[in-house]
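Cross-posted from the bioinformatics board.
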Amino acid sequence: MNPEGWAKMHGATVHFPIALILCSGALDALGSFLPAPATRRGLHAAGYWTMILGAAGTVPAVVSGLVMSRGVMLGHDTLRLHHLFAWPAFALIVGLAAWRSLASDFTAGKAPAGYLAVAGVAALLVMAAGYYGGEMMLGH
Amino acid sequence: MENPAAPPAPPGAGPRIPLAALAAALALACAYGLSLGLRRAASRGSHQQPTPEAWFETSAPSSPALVAQGRALFLSSCAHCHGADARGDEGPDLHRVEVSDRYIANTITHGIKHEMPSFKRKLGAEDIARLTAYVRSLD
């Protein structure tokens, strides 16, 4: 596949993890503050699966991005800005998924404040990386 | 031996955070490994020398005079492929290239196999710096 094909593949794969990660943080945060235990359990279960699926979705997004840029991890100008947000976001998402896999008992109560804080930072990084990704695609 | 009367650990406690950090570091290491492999494969294909990237790599200092000198060199050496306005002809459009200054200089110096000739013998380091400044100025 040529670089243009990989660029299309990157665009096709990257939006799933963006949506899932943002939803996961929001669902867990909501589940920590609502009083009804059944609703809370449901929201935490949804937060768990969206985080796991979102983290799994980062793999094709990262691979297609690296192949389309022929292995450039940083690059220059807008690409560099995109990467300076995307790589920390990728690391945090994988870390959050691992944390969540080891602590699936969030359903029993509130999500730890530390987890929610890290998920919030990851969401901000994902949004910033997405912003500069959009700049590269549409800003020319 | 585990005490059956002990209360269960609260969510998020224990070795979870170090393990999560380890998973994150492993994921980044895998991405870096893939990046290295892809860059080596790309450099073999285009006989370019691999150029290690540095975090927060800055652009080389430029000036209007340097850009003007680069433009003159561009018209004499590059415009027949890239077009007089660098919008592309036989060669690609050079506006807003998303690569480092070193990558631009490296491409001019070594060329791209089957696509672009090497200018190593025709242009010196100063000329390549001028051309790089010109290409960088194309927005």
